């Protein structure tokens, strides 16, 4: 570190991995993600099946069958009750076959697009921002607190609703942005490791939010007042009670495209990517790395805050303790998408399918819906070792086409 | 000349350590200024009390053990940011194994078997992490995060499978062991010599870890593996084996630390939210950064964080205080402190080659 850049406990080491991922050709990246996903699901199935050995078997052998064998399956003196194939079938089937399921899937997809983008933009800048969850919690809180106050002030109706939604989202974006900027400033000016600061800030965010609701607002339950239907995002198409609004999804997609453009075709995006891949080179070429770090983390925070607003203003209607872990899912979405906005769309859709599938799981099969949280970890674990996945892909006979040299790296690739 | 440079470096390091303690003092003063009178008036009841000291020592156990484990791993060149996941593994498997064994064997024995099982589970997970990092050249930070997220999902999943809820039922805790004679010393006896087995394990681990790291060939290998692996290679010691062993140490110690949260404290596993581990693995990383990679320093910074934690727990127990101060606000004080410490300790001299994959035979 002879150039005076302050070495960071872990951050600078992360660039190597990013470099490998970003340096890989687009085809390679897709192959790595797809193979990692398939392997993760296979591991997940084994995990589910083995878990069935310790579970208490309550299922009806007439209904549950695995490869034609009645469940619980008995061998080695153990009863295996879980059907690993059925779990994933239910996950996907339940979320894609009826209008209600599709609406729920798209609802989760819209929020995951925002959290995925929040993670992706920071990862692209070489910042391991794990704080999207906390930014989302506080963004959701801002919307949940401001929304009901505005409801009392405006006339019920389309205009009133638009004002409530607009101001609430603005509040969520500001709060999320500030919460994201804090670890950014700490990283840029004090070299405080962002992994740890953002994780601490997640915990602090929930503590703060609960305090605000219970002790400042004096709510008896740890939740804010519910918004009336007219002050929430309405379902333009797919009018079910699944609480999905195409407006939010469209907005999230527009933001995805905007971020893709900014990352690839703007000076800021260029600086951000160079800082992520070659921080020293960026410094030499006159990029103000500190400012890029703070700006990136602020944008990530804004996106996280908006995700929280989308959750409250579209899905739940109020803030309550226990905001779903879309922020952590965002890490998996971003990692699966090789941190590129273009890849975020299919990755968010995939994870949105899983998320809405867990609701079906909760109702039906006895496999706990937390299986998706397990899958989330397995996927990251696999994508963390692109080398291994690449070798596996080659063993399976999948080989990426040769790309001309020099195209990888900081090009205007997605 | 060289020794002068070394001395300056040491002095700087000491300044930083002082700065860290200063942070705690400043937080204390600010806390006293802004805290409601109900809290300040009861502060002596909260601190100058054997219960507070005992709680602090107990809360130090997972931090110090996981911190020392993480220190070994990082010294050897493998940054183990997944310690949180290892702690969750230890906490969850200790309760679950004890639960399953409580029927077939004597409940007291079941606790010990559950304890040993928890260490094995955590060590297995650490081994998986080591294989991924060392054999498969995975990025250590991403792999560590994955270990954490994996357990953040798997432990509540497992609890739902076995107990039908994210929170397990109670399995009891270890008996405290009073050391004959010493336990009768007023105050100190109660704090240090009438404790859970895990507390004694910690008190043994701290000096042993220091001795091994600084006075044995193995300690030299660990340090060389993180600073200059080529030299170690040339000397005929396998960098791979050293790194594997160091990561396994972090797994074993985190397993004990995780089990101490359950079998020497809560008696059950709580899997909702961030699970009962609640960021302690990440705080443990900060304890060894603040302790400057010294096992004794790690233990002492662990005591500071644990003291904060114990203080907030005490604050919630005294009715006058808990009525005046929101519990959740007090609960985040340790986490705020972690951030402040990091801001002042961000610049830590990490092992030169930590985080990098090492290919034997490369120049």
Word description of this protein:
The complex is a heterodimer of chains A (414) and B (363). Chain A is an all-alpha fold. Chain A is built from 15 helices and 4 strands. In chain A, β3 and β4 form a beta hairpin. In chain A, α9 crosses α11. In chain B, α3 packs antiparallel against α11, α3 packs antiparallel against α13 and α9 crosses α11. Chain B has a two-stranded antiparallel ribbon. Chain B has 363 residues and is an all-alpha fold. Chain B starts with a helix and ends in an 18-residue tail after the last helix. Chains A and B meet through α1, α7, α12 and α14 of A and α6, α12, α15 and α16 of B.
Give descriptors for this structure:
heterodimer; A: 414 residues; mainly alpha; two-stranded antiparallel ribbon; 15 helices; 4 strands; disordered C terminus; B: 363 residues; two-stranded antiparallel sheet
Query: Mean pLDDT across all residues of chain A, rounded?
Result: 83
The largest sheet of chain B has its strands arranged as 1-2
Largest sheet of chain A: 2 strands, antiparallel
Rg of chain B from C-alpha positions? 21 Å
Share of residues in helices of chain A: 55-70%
Poorly predicted regions of chain B are none
Derived structural class of chain A: mainly alpha
Average of the residue pLDDT scores of chain B? 86
Amino-to-carboxy terminus distance of chain A = 31 Å
Task: Please state roughly what percent of the residues of chain B sit in beta strands, choosing from under 5%, 5-15%, 15-25%, 25-35%, 35-45% or over 45%.
Answer: under 5%
What is the end-to-end distance of chain B?
29 Å
Which structural class fits the helix and strand makeup of chain B? mainly alpha
Secondary-structure element order of chain A, N to C: HHEEEEHHHHHHHHHHHHH
Shape of chain A: globular
Largest sheet features of chain B: 2 strands, antiparallel
Inertia-based shape of chain B: globular
* Strand coverage percent of chain A: under 5%
């Amino acid at each position: 570190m002879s150039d005076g850049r302050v070495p960071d406990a872990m951050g600078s080491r992360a660039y190597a991995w990013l470099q490998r991922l970003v340096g890989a050709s687009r085809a390679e990246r897709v192959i790595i993600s797809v193979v990692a996903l398939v392997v993760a699901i296979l591991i997940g199935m084994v995990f589910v099946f083995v878990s069935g050995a310790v579970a208490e078997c309550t299922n009806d052998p007439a209904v549950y069958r695995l490869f034609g064998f009645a469940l619980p399956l008995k061998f080695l003196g153990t009863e295996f009750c879980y059907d690993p194939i059925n779990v994933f079938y239910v996950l996907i089937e339940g979320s894609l076959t009826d209008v209600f399921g599709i609406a729920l899937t798209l609802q989760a997809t819209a929020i995951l697009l925002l959290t995925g983008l929040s993670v992706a933009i920071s990862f692209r800048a070489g910042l391991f921002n794990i704080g999207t969850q906390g930014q989302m919690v506080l963004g959701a809180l801002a919307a949940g607190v401001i929304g009901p106050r505005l409801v009392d002030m405006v006339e019920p109706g389309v205009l009133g609703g638009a004002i409530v939604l607009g101001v609430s989202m603005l509040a969520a974006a500001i709060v999320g942005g500030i919460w994201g900027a804090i670890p950014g400033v700490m990283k840029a000016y004090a070299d405080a490791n962002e992994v740890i600061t953002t994780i601490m800030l997640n915990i602090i965010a929930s503590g703060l939010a609960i305090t605000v609701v219970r002790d400042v607002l004096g709510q008896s339950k740890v939740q804010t007042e519910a918004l009336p239907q007219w002050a929430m995002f309405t379902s333009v198409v797919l009018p079910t009670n699944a609480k999905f609004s195409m407006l939010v999804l469209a907005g999230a997609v527009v933001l995805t495209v905007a971020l893709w453009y900014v990352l690839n075709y703007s000076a800021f995006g260029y600086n951000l990517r160079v800082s992520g891949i070659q921080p020293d080179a960026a410094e030499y070429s006159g990029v103000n790395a500190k400012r890029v770090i703070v700006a990136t983390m602020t944008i990530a925070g804004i996106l996280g805050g908006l995700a929280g607003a989308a959750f409250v203003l579209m899905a739940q209607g109020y803030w309550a303790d226990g905001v779903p872990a879309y922020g952590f899912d965002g890490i998996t979405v971003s990692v699966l998408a090789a941190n590129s906005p273009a890849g975020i769309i299919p990755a968010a859709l995939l994870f949105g399918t899983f998320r809405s599938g867990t609701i079906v799981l909760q109702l039906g099969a006895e496999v706990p819906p937390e299986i998706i949280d397990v899958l989330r970890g397995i996927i990251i674990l696999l994508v963390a070792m692109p080398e291994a996945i690449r070798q596996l892909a080659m063993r399976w006979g999948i080989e990426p086409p040769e790309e001309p040299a020099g195209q990888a790296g900081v090009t205007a690739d997605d | 000349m060289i020794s002068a440079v070394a001395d300056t470096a040491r002095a700087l390091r000491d300044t930083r350590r002082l700065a860290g303690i200063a942070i705690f003092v400043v937080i204390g003063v600010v806390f006293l200024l802004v805290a409601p009178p109900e809290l300040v008036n009861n502060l002596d009841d909260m601190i100058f009390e054997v219960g507070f000291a005992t709680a602090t020592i107990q809360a130090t156990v997972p931090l110090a053990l996981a911190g020392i484990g993480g220190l070994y791993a990082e010294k050897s060149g493998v940054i183990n940011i997944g310690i949180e996941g290892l702690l969750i593994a230890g906490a969850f498997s200790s309760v679950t194994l004890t639960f399953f064994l409580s029927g077939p064997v004597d409940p007291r024995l079941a606790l010990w078997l559950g304890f040993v099982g928890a260490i094995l589970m955590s060590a297995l997970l650490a081994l998986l992490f080591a294989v991924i990092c060392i054999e498969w050249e995975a990025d250590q930070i991403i792999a560590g995060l994955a270990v954490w997220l994996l357990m953040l999902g798997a432990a509540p999943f497992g609890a739902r499978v076995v107990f039908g809820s994210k929170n397990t039922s109670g399995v009891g805790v270890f008996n405290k062991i009073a050391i004959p004679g010493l336990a009768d010393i007023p105050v100190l006896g109660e704090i240090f010599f009438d404790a859970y087995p895990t507390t004694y394990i910690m008190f043994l681990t701290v000096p042993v870890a220091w001795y091994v790291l600084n006075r044995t060939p193995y300690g030299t290998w660990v340090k060389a593996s993180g600073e200059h692996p080529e030299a170690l290679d040339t000397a005929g010691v396998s960098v791979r084996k050293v790194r594997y062993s160091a990561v396994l140490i972090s797994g074993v110690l985190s397993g004990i630390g995780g089990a101490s949260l359950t079998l020497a404290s809560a008696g059950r596993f709580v899997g909702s939210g961030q699970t009962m581990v609640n960021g302690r693995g990440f705080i443990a990383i900060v304890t060894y950064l603040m302790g400057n990679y010294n096992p004794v320093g790690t233990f002492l910074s662990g005591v500071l964080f644990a003291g904060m934690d114990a203080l907030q727990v005490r604050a919630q127990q005294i009715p006058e205080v808990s009525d005046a101060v929101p519990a959740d606000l007090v609960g985040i004080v340790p986490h705020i402190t972690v951030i402040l410490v990091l801001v002042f300790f961000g610049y830590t001299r990490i092992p030169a080659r930590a985080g990098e994959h090492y290919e034997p035979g490369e120049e």
